[in-house]
Amino acid sequence: MAHKVRAALPVVLVVDDEAGMQQYLRRALEVEYCAVETVSNGRDAINRVRRGPAPDLVFLDVEMPGLNGLDTLSELLRCRPELKIIMCSSHSDEDTIDRAQTLGAREYLAKPFRQVQLADALQRWLTL
Questions:
Q1: CATH number of 30's domain
Q2: Residue-range definition of the domain harbouring residue 111
Q3: What's the structural domain count of the chain?
Q4: Nearest to residue 56, comparing CAs of 97, 114, 14?
Q5: pLDDT over threshold 90, residue 90
Q6: pLDDT (tens digit, 9 = 90+) per residue, 2-18?
Q7: Run of H or E including 11
Q8: pTM
Q9: Looking at beta carbons, which pairs linking 109-114 to residues 24 or more positions away fall under 8 Å?
């Protein structure tokens, strides 16, 4: 009897300093059949990406203590230009959105967002 070989789940890295948001995204993304890793700051995200292998997608909060999301975005893309990064923030001013896109973010989701918005973003940026 032949066994189907299951492809590895896509890995999504969640970078957010709020534990509640990490938990919400973990639950929501695992429903969409993703493996989820979480870190709570930009420096840990950069170290994780440098260590490799690169995640398939990164959800990156803009507002974090220490290294903010925009600076983290720049550094992550300097390490791995092919990374797909979606910025997330409850502060959605046009300047921040424009700067994130100019730096290389694929998308910008305003918090709070719904499960359907996450599913749509995954559909756009991952092959599930």
A1: 3.40.50.2300
A2: 11-125
A3: 1
A4: 14
A5: no
A6: 544 446 899 999 999 99
A7: strand 11-15
A8: 0.90
A9: 109/59, 111/21, 113/88
Helix, strand, or coil here: 28? Answer: helix
Q: Give yes or no for a contact between 115 and 28, defined as CB atoms under 8 angstroms apart.
A: yes
What is the rounded CA–CA span in Å between residue 13 and residue 46?
A: 11
17 lies in some domain: yes
With a cut of 50, say whether residue 112 has pLDDT above it. yes
Report the alpha-carbon distance of residue 125 to residue 115 in Å, rounded.
15
Contact 44, 66 (CB under 8 A): no
pLDDT in tens, 13-55: 999 999 999 999 999 999 878 999 999 999 999 999 999 899 9
Answer yes or no: is 5 within a domain.
Answer: no
Query: Is the confidence at residue 63, as pLDDT, over 90?
Result: yes
What is the chain's mean pLDDT, rounded?
90
Q: Which residues contact 34 (CB under 8 A, 6 or more apart)?
A: 9, 10, 11, 12, 56, 57, 122, 126, 128
